[in-house]
């Protein structure tokens, strides 16, 4: 029996969501569209199998096919990033980070991580998280130019003697000097961890610095620029392999989601293709065009611009808040997210900024010409945020444009 026959409520909602994805401009920088092959592996019968343990060392029988799948995912990830060891079982980015801390640290140890409003992630020590109650997080910030000041980082590292220095961000738009940070860590005897959740695809495509050969440990999601299924992964030096594996299972998780791991393996195969380099380069080119278009229209770009796939924009000089801009753009068929700016004077639920990026619209095939048109629409929507008719007009134009870039052509629920 098909899903539509058995459970029309779910099927219809999935169809509505597919239509929404097709007809809008998805510009949340952490989102993407997986390939049909990734989708097929994700929806496969591998979901039926219990396989606690690791390839060749399982607590369940019947794992011979699952072992092949998981080993392929591991080997491909190693090849993409030049890693000595990879664990593909973390269920998502947040649990990957928790397992990484557990693998490297004792409870109570000090971690030097970036402040959330400056682009860090909740899991990097925000007071609302469980990790912040277990470890002693000290937070660094970007400087007045919006860059990471290594002299300040060194001074903080000498003062606080962290066991771990943590880089890798959710809203930061600049390149990261991993070698410079590793140097500071060596000076104070700290371990190094990079969370490349947002930029893993850009690194895989050779478009940004790769922390994997330099740092002790690197965590990532697999569903952002890397364009795989929703999930996480840990890459590390061989000397941390045992601790990492034990921290993921049995430390934190039970049975791995082998359907997701199969889909990760497919996405990693795609990331090894020459086309993926072109994709990653186009993500950056598209973000650069948006940067230029917004600067020309007097938008206030945080960190001075972008070296990656995203822009963090303070919209308050346009007479509205981040939440109001987010809502106006939604009405115009353009999905972004409201976001704090560094040391935001406003609240997290109604901050000063919006964050937007190019990974998903680049997957759809959009290039420089479309970016110029889209930047114009975003500006128009922000200027006319209180004019529902104008916003509806933009939405109609957005829908017209998206028809030229079909998404999941054959799919129907
Ligand atoms: C997205 C993100 C995460 C969390 O990933 P989830 O899959 O949502 O748990 C962790 N770290 C950074 C830097 C991120 O951007």
Automatic annotation (TrEMBL):
Its EC number is 2.1.2.1. Keywords: Amino-acid biosynthesis, Cytoplasm, Methyltransferase, One-carbon metabolism, Pyridoxal phosphate, Transferase. GO terms for molecular function: glycine hydroxymethyltransferase activity; methyltransferase activity; pyridoxal phosphate binding. Pathway: One-carbon metabolism; tetrahydrofolate interconversion; Amino-acid biosynthesis; glycine biosynthesis; glycine from L-serine: step 1/1. It is found in: Cytoplasm. Residues 3-378 form the Serine hydroxymethyltransferase-like domain. Its main location: cytoplasm. It catalyses: (6R)-5,10-methylene-5,6,7,8-tetrahydrofolate + glycine + H2O = (6S)-5,6,7,8-tetrahydrofolate + L-serine. The record marks 223 as: Plays an important role in substrate specificity. InterPro entries: PyrdxlP-dep_Trfase, PyrdxlP-dep_Trfase_major, PyrdxlP-dep_Trfase_small, Ser_HO-MeTrfase, Ser_HO-MeTrfase-like, Ser_HO-MeTrfase_PLP_BS, SHMT-like_dom. (6S)-5,6,7,8-tetrahydrofolate binds at residues 116, 120-122. The keyword Amino-acid biosynthesis applies. GO terms for biological process: glycine biosynthetic process from serine; methylation; tetrahydrofolate interconversion. The modification N6-(pyridoxal phosphate)lysine is found at residue 224. Its cofactor is pyridoxal 5'-phosphate. CDD domains: SHMT. GO terms for cellular component: cytosol. SUPFAM superfamilies: PLP-dependent transferases. The keyword Cytoplasm applies. Catalyzes the reversible interconversion of serine and glycine with tetrahydrofolate (THF) serving as the one-carbon carrier. This reaction serves as the major source of one-carbon groups required for the biosynthesis of purines, thymidylate, methionine, and other important biomolecules. Also exhibits THF-independent aldolase activity toward beta-hydroxyamino acids, producing glycine and aldehydes, via a retro-aldol mechanism. Homodimer. NCBIfam families: PRK00011.1 (NF000586). This is Serine hydroxymethyltransferase. It comes from Candidatus Uhrbacteria bacterium GW2011_GWC1_41_20. The gene is glyA.
